[in-house]
Amino acid sequence: MVDLKRQYLKIKPQIDTAIQSVIDATQFIKGPKVKEFEDNLAKYLQVKHVIGVANGTDALQIAMMALDLQPEDEVITADFTYAATAEVIALLRLKPILVEVNPKTFNIDTKALEKAITPKTKAIVPVHLFGQCADMEAIMKIAEKHNLFVIEDVAQAIGADYTFADKTIHKAGTIGDIGCTSFFPSKNLGCYGDGGALYTNDDILATRIRMIANHGQSVQYYHDKVGVNSRLDTIQAAILNEKLPYLDEYAKRRNELADFYDKAFADCPQLTVPSRKKGSTHVFHQYTLLLNGVNRDEFRKKLAEKNVPSMIYYPIPLHNQKAYQDPRFTDADFPISTDLCQRVVSLPMHTEMDSEQREYIVKSVLESIK
Ligand SMILES: *Cc1c(COP(=O)(O)O)cnc(C)c1O
Questions:
Q1: CATH 3.90.1150.10 placement within the chain
Q2: pLDDT tens, position by position, 279-309
Q3: Exposed end of the chain (fewer CB within 10 Å): N or C?
Q4: Separation of 182 CA from ligand 1 center, angstroms?
Q5: pLDDT over 70 for what percent of the chain?
Q6: Nearest CA to ligand 1 atom 5
Q7: Nearest ligand 1 atom, CA 55
């Protein structure tokens, strides 16, 4: 599905030097490379503050802690997403409220979102699934109208641009109150272990986030809040510093591959290619097809026989996950999300694919739907 080895080999000398420099300096925790990377990423995103943490799930948790959400507060997120988003809501004893998604973009349905708002609602967590922003224009309007916080889950969409109707362009994750991302190795900007970050334009929130991520300390050994221990490792920051300059090029390669797939499958009624919002950009964390009247298991089995990997993101909607079941939520409330889980299939998508590989994948897909 990804080729991290080839990506590494292309920049091996500079990565190896960066890792060795951290070891030589023995500055493993909160070394200067962490701040350097935070500053570089902030500049790239055009956002005031970037705070590195241990992983993307921690970033989401720290965001909710920094906004001072209280037990029983309701937090709305999409039913069709990775579980981490709902997990931290539940972990903090907040109430995850799941809503339906848009069948074209796979992102949160803004009409369903507005309907789900109650007097207890405090925040919305749109997930920019597969590399494309949720409808942030509508979401920000709803948030403003109902006085809600917006935490963007940008783990799959780092670097994506969102264009508003007035033509202003913002990077994914810099539109709401806080953006949360992950540097998991297979993410679009991946490190060589775990890593994550929060972004915000709010100075007070940035200070609170730093404090919470560092055991709730403002000054060493003075703990003002109950916090957590969540740090971006210095070696990971050094690696990310070397990879960040390539992020746009990586997105370009992903888009080239997506264009190639789109074209190859355009005339194929059994396959619906991913839709893209005009004006905004897509960074194709995943290239996800919808199968129409094709047996997915058989299709994947045939692909596997031809040595073409495929994945199902995601096989089970959150409302059917044992951990997040709620008697108020049934399949009838989520016809789209439930249907998507049965029909999606993601193809290999990465920065290192050569033309021989992509042609072989396309040929195999077309043979396997028959
Ligand atoms: C990867 C991911 C996360 C979690 O990131 P980790 O770094 O693995 O904790 C959260 N949300 C979404 C949508 C993700 O894809």
A1: 247-368
A2: 899 999 999 999 999 999 999 999 999 999 9
A3: C
A4: 6
A5: 100
A6: 56
A7: 7
Mutate to test the pocket of ligand 1, among 57, 91, 125, 189 (most ligand atoms within 8 A of CB): 57
Does pLDDT of 176 surpass 90? yes
> In CATH terms, is domain 247-368 a member of 3.30.70.1530?
no
Per-residue tokens: 320 = 């059917």
Q: Which atom of ligand 1 is nearest to the CA of 182?
A: 7
Would the CB of 156 count as within 6 Å of ligand 1? yes
- Tens of pLDDT along 76-94? 999 999 999 999 999 999 9
Class of domain 4-97+106-245: alpha beta
Q: Could you tell me how far CA 184 lies from the centroid of its own chain?
A: 10
**Whether pLDDT at 328 is above 90:** no
84 lines ligand 1 (CB under 6 A): yes
Look over the chain and give the mean of its residue pLDDT values, rounded to a whole number.
Answer: 97
Cα separation, 69 vs 74, whole angstroms = 9
Q: What's the predicted TM-score (pTM) here?
A: 0.97
Which of 156, 180, 194, 288 has most ligand 1 atoms within 8 Å of its beta carbon, as the pocket-test mutant?
Answer: 156
Q: Which residue owns the Cα nearest ligand 1 atom 6?
A: 56
Q: What is the pLDDT of residues 16-35, one digit of tens each?
A: 999 999 999 999 999 999 99
- Whether the CB-CB separation of 98 and 323 falls below 8 Å is answered with no
Residue for token pair 């009838």: 332
Q: Do residues 38 and 219 make contact, with C-beta atoms less than 8 angstroms apart?
A: no
Give the distance from CA 284 to its chain's centroid. Answer: 11
Say if CB 217 and CB 211 are below 8 A apart: yes
